Amino acid sequence: MVYVPPSNPLRTWDFRVTSVPIVGAGAFSPVSIISLTIPGLATTERLAVGWQASVTNQYSYNVGVGRYLTFASQPQYTAAGASSFWVTPAAMENVTPDRHHGLVAGSTSITAGDFISYDGDWCLNLCIYARATGQGGSDSLIIDGNGWMTVHRF
Questions:
Q1: What is the tally of structural domains in the chain?
Q2: The pTM is what?
Q3: Which UniProt keywords apply (predicted)?
Q4: CA 14, CA 76: separation in Å to the nearest integer?
Q5: How far apart are CA 136 and CA 23, in angstroms?
Q6: Which of 11, 28, 115, 125 could form a disulfide with 85 if both were Cys (CB 3.0 to 4.6 A apart)?
């Protein structure tokens, strides 16, 4: 028997930022580009989460684009701490000059109680970071605004 999630998932297309700073190798400067609040989330609930964002590398060098997902008590939270938890490990891929555009996409299925200890309103935040060897300063990776985040509750 295959479980089919409810037909009314939570969705957002509201990107919070349009660029992410490119930092040198070894540095870490994540930005939450999209957040989705899950009202009344119970620790016993399972979630199917999907996300997609497109980025543009307008430079003549490779840019490593990393991403991870956090649960937090507030939108746009990028770090793990007392009220925030990493849901997915960080993953990274290169967006080369000849490729120019990159797609940051993923999905996961989680049990809320693995990350949160009490029922309430919680936010999922898609965090992006960009790195390039020998780079830094004012260069930024462009977030194209074409993307989404969807959560199915079951």
A1: 1
A2: 0.85
A3: Membrane, Transmembrane, Transmembrane helix
A4: 12
A5: 4
A6: 115
Return the sign of the alpha-carbon dihedral for residues 118, 119, 120, 125: positive
CATH number of the domain enclosing 118: 2.60.120.660
The answer to the question of residue 111 being in a domain is yes
- The pair of structure tokens assigned to 23 is 């930092």
74-105 pLDDT per residue, tens: 887 776 665 677 788 888 888 888 888 888 88
Q: How far apart are CA 114 and CA 28, in angstroms?
A: 26
Is residue 71 one of the residues assigned to a domain? yes
Q: Identify the domain containing residue 77 by its residue range.
A: 12-153
Q: What is the pLDDT of residue 37?
A: 93
Q: Under a CB-based contact definition with an 8 Å cutoff, are residues 53 and 15 in contact?
A: yes
- Residue 85 inside a domain? The answer is yes
Number of Cβ within a 10 Å radius of residue 143: 22
Q: Where are the beta strands (DSSP E) in 1-45?
A: 10-12, 19-23, 31-41
Strand blocks (E) in 62-119: 63-72, 84-86, 91-95, 101-111
Closest listed residue to residue 10, CA positions, set 39, 33, 42, 43 = 39
